[in-house]
Design brief:
disordered N terminus; alpha/beta; disordered C terminus; 553 residues
Length: 553
């Protein structure tokens, strides 16, 4: 490759700009005398200019530091402490610090920019700005949140929000957790939320009844103590729905308040309070308000209308602000219904999740002890027709069977006492299976599943029981073991292909497989499931583990 030759360029006279970017000026041309033509003075001037610029900038930087950048705090002991603020550090690079940037963005967020779920879940913090929003995204329930001057108006089944954000519109909510079921939701009382804008504290507009919107407070609840409004209508009366649609959603919504919350109940039933008072008094420190018949105007600073729900008999820790789950709800039940003397004195203490299932008898007698098995029976439908044979099979499998015939009047503490000390539970699919919530982790739930109810049995009870830590076993009823075989024929579509009936909707399925079916289990097949339950208990009960530890020692 040929080398390229460049003609040397004539040196140019130094300029201020070239002096700024070079470390030193080029040497003077040899044909010029030093100082000739004023070149030396120009070079010194060019060097002096950037120094002056830097000096002026440094002085300006120091002067612009606010006096609050250095904070002097005096302790009680008289010693002084000087703290450096982050903006001083930021001046070193002439860029705002990340921390200050984050704080600025945090301060500029308004209530209108936050999702409604952030207020319902307590993630939005506190503030004085009025808030009215509704989260209607869940297929099971609508939930609305109010913050400001909130007043109930039972005469019109409405709630008034004074100081509501401009542009707010009235909202209507049926506070029950079966939003997808139109037939039952139509029976739930509706609550109307009426906003009164902040610009009209003495508004003359009228409410649903034609009266002036201003309502005088008869009961003013303490600031920071919100209300949670919900209904005990719908399927209340069925123990499964009382827990799945009511108590568990109430726990999900209200437990974060640690008792500092007031429950406002629509379609209030005194028997419901008597039955579940032990649970409610561990969620609230205040008396329950009957929305329909308490004619007084109750005033709050905050209100949630409706309940959050995660699914069937479940509390999802990932959706809870504090990560609590179904075991925390069970601990609350145990604390409420335990008959131990210490439980009443420890009502204010945080519920403690139950330990591993204990044996039904003391460990020293473990060799001779039989695990306790509770059998729930039904009377109207899905009746276990060969119950005496089932009891005998349980006894032969090594269990101590106890039969429970539940009635509506059976006290929950009695049911809790029976199951909290039990090692296993047997029941045909139905609402009574809900009581597995009283059983300790490591116990066995054996569900007898009639024809056509496989999905419901697993979704409503099987999966929730496993999430609670129970060993879940199923006995699936064969077509010849169902009373439907005698009614429709063993080879009928009803018996052989339940999906045909189920495809017609829940009510058709319920009418055939839940309301008109009884079962006679095959004792030989049933005994195999009992043996699996017994084997599980031998390996996992607290006494078995203790015995294994002793053997190792």
């Amino acid at each position: 490759m040929m080398q390229q030759h460049h003609k040397p360029s004539k040196p140019s006279a130094p300029t201020c700009c070239s002096s700024w970017i070079r470390r030193s000026p080029p040497p003077s041309p040899p044909h010029k005398k030093p100082g000739g033509g004023g070149g030396g003075k120009g070079r010194y001037a060019c060097r002096l200019v950037p120094l002056l610029v830097l000096t002026v900038y440094s002085v300006f930087t120091v002067l612009r530091i606010p006096s609050s950048s250095l904070v002097v705090t005096t302790a009680d002991s008289g010693s002084e402490r000087v703290e450096r603020r982050e903006d001083v550090e930021a001046l070193k690079t002439h860029l705002p610090s990340n921390q200050n940037g984050l704080e600025a963005r945090e301060e500029t967020r308004s209530a209108a920019s936050l999702p409604c779920s952030a207020f319902i879940n307590g993630e939005a913090g506190h503030g004085d700005e009025g808030v009215l929003c509704c989260d209607r995204s869940h297929y099971r329930s609508d939930v609305c949140y109010l913050r400001g001057d909130v007043r109930t108006d039972p005469s019109t089944s409405s709630v008034l929000l004074y100081g509501a954000p401009r542009g707010s519109s009235p909202e209507k909510v049926r506070p029950y957790t079966r939003k997808f079921e139109d037939s039952i939701m139509s029976t739930i009382d509706e609550v109307t939320i009426v906003p009164v804008p902040a610009a009209a504290p003495n508004a003359t507009s009228v409410g649903p009844d034609g009266n002036n919107l201003r309502r005088r407070c008869d009961v003013r609840h303490p600031p920071g103590v919100p209300a949670v409004v919900f209904s005990t209508g719908g399927y209340t009366g069925n123990v499964y729905h009382e827990f799945s649609d009511g108590l568990i959603p109430l726990f999900i919504t209200a437990q974060r308040f640690a008792g500092e919350v007031v429950f406002v109940v629509l379609e209030y039933h005194y028997w419901w309070l008597g039955r579940y008072g032990a649970v409610l008094e561990r969620l609230t420190n205040y008396k329950v308000v009957d929305f329909r018949y308490d004619r007084r105007v109750h005033c709050f600073s905050e209100m949630i209308v409706g309940l959050r729900i995660h699914g069937e008999l479940v509390v999802d820790p990932k959706l809870m602000p504090d990560g609590k789950g179904i075991k925390d709800f069970q601990a609350l039940l145990h604390q409420g219904y335990s008959r131990t003397p210490s439980s009443s004195s420890a009502a204010s203490q945080a519920p403690v999740p139950l330990p591993l299932a204990p044996p039904s008898r003391p460990c020293p007698r473990a060799a001779a002890a039989k695990p306790k098995l509770v059998i729930f029976i039904r009377k109207k439908n899905r009746v276990l027709l060969n119950l005496p044979h089932v009891v005998t099979a349980c006894r032969r499998a090594g269990f101590a069977p106890h039969v429970m015939n539940l009635r509506r009047q059976t006290p929950l503490p009695a049911i809790h006492a029976a199951l909290a000390s039990a090692d296993a539970m047997v029941a045909v699919h139905g609402a009574a299976v809900t009581h597995f919530l009283f059983m300790r982790p490591g116990s066995v739930l054996l569900q007898i599943v009639p024809v056509g109810l496989d999905w419901a049995a697993d979704a409503f009870y099987g999966k929730p029981a496993q999430q609670l830590g129970l060993e879940y076993l199923e006995y699936k009823v064969a077509p010849e073991e169902s009373s439907l075989a005698a009614e429709y024929g063993l080879n009928s579509t009803v018996v052989r292909d339940p999906s045909v009936i189920s495809s017609r909707g829940w009510w058709e399925m319920k009418k055939v497989y839940m309301d008109r079916q009884n079962v006679t289990v095959n004792i030989k097949r049933f005994a195999e499931v009992l043996r699996a339950a017994r084997a599980h208990l031998k390996n996992t009960t607290a006494c078995a583990r203790g015995g294994a530890s002793a053997a190792l020692r």
